[in-house]
Amino acid sequence: MTEHTKISPEGEAIIPRELCERLNWRPGTEIEIDTSGDRVVLRPKPEPRERISLAEFRQSRVPYEGPPISIGDMEEAIERATRQALGGERAPQQMIGVDTNVVVRLIVLDDRKQTDLAETQLQRGMFISHGVLIETEWVLRSVYGFDRSRTCQELLRLLDLAGVEVGGLSDVLWAVGRHREGADLADMLHLVSSRDQLAFVTFDRDLPRDAGSDTPVAVELLV
Question: What is the pLDDT of residues 138-147, one digit of tens each?
């Protein structure tokens, strides 16, 4: 749906009341303005996220009840779901990047020794790439049998952890939120990585709908 407004001599624009009501934007709502080329995206400024300690993270975990999954089995699951790796994100300086299996051990607690090692690394700080987040979702779903709701809950708890850094936290939170609503997480993170481009083109007719109106980059169908 397209809405119209005008720029005042002071450079201000009024957002139509009907649109504000539909989006539940109340007076005083802080709005972020993102630009890409000649495209402008408005979205509510996210609330500050409170970090949690490792002890709080541990208390929230429900250990996986089956036998420990080997690293080889994790890698095999990732191979079955191979997609083109994401690029473009940059780790903060002085951070250590971690592999998918390290993140999975933090979440599922099915190998005590490796979980302890992963927690020790967490205390030193860790950078989790978009590609590792994608692979983590694949492993939790295809190997451990997590449903969409639990997977999103675990990823959000992970992102709350003190010591965890990702490229573009607000965008990653958007991607997980869209995944919770039914979108494919990998597709949403592809859009995030293309946010500074003019558009993202696809043959997937469902992608524009899945991305929603606040997509970080325009989604165009090749037809």
Answer: 999 999 999 9
